[in-house]
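Q: Structure for this?
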Amino acid sequence: MSGWNQGKMQLSGRGVICVRGGREVFSGLDFEAVSGEAVAVVGRNGSGKTSLLRLIAGLLIPAGGTIALNGGDAELTLPEQCHYLGHRDALKPALSVAENLSFWADFLGGEHFDAAESLATVGLDHATHLPAGFLSAGQRRRLSLARLLTVRRPVWLLDEPTNALDVAGQDMFGGLMRDHLGRGGVIVAATHAPLGIDSRELRIGGMA
Amino acid sequence: MTALSALIRRDIRIALRVGGGALIGVLFFLTVVVLMPFAVGPDLALLSRLGPAILWLGALLASLLTLDRLFMADHEDGSLDLITMSRTPLELACAAKALAHWLAAGLPLIVATPVLGLLLNLDMVATGAVALTLLAGTPALTFTGMIGAALAVTLHRGGLLMAVLVLPLSIPVLIFGVAASQAVIVGPMTFGAPFSILCALSLVSLVVGPFAAAASLKHGLD
């Protein structure tokens, strides 16, 4: 089992300013997460939780401040070391469960693990040949989680990860996050519901 | 390399499955060209004179029809986010997507051309010339169309905007494609000159298209 313990990683943001559509969502935000640590981003609707994750993922450009990962792979940029699990699940309804997963494994590259094993872990091994269009919302979420397991990335950016998951699914996911942290990974999750693991709370947009 | 071939294989597979876009373009091409002899009337000489232009227009409109979905589908389901974040340069990913689109939607048009040539009273040589010019020219249509498709994603407008943006870019391709075909059928020009320019247009678009599309996608991140 690979680990990232060798160099302590540190994901940090200093004075991050986020502007969307001409409106300042948040400003002067400082945050920090080290290897083995989960940060739960909380705040009311529209406070910028998703925006923060997308800033870290390089999908938004910060209007000010810096976001950096220290101790990661020096050859790679921060987004290249991140997994982003958003509201939209990046699944193609016309492709089967196995095809969806193996595409992302091949495309994302880097070190990757047995896809069938990941599907078994998330409880989808009975549906590998089913087109993803026939999956329920919870099953789609489980398939997205299988992507995080098949392709290893040290930083997980999770946006409402437990949405649509049943109780057993949430337990399973809690276990996956603990394994990831145990391997020295970093998790930043935007959430309303409790994550189900020990995490540090980062409240944004509280000053309004 | 595995990343790019995986992307190409995925896009072709989606296009060929039920509900994919590959068949729509060919069907549209068939419809336009099949209807044309009925509209023009039974003047065989006129028909063969217009033939290359009709085939080229049909192919141009058919490729426009399917191009606007090139990035839109990936944008809507979040795949584009992951593609942007990945270790594959966005320019190469764009080129791979365009190549996949051309293989799935452009090649069938060229395969259908000989059949449609019969309907337009084109002889073997003329049909061959049109098919050859389409083979050299349709990559240019796809790769310039990709720029419009990328802009349509970033500006959140599909369809019509894309047609307006892309049509001016495809006019030179149309001119030299039809000119090269006409040179074979009626002369007096040589086939070589317009055909070389057509190839040059394709080569330029192969280089410029992916960079412009990737720049547009990066600029429009949100």
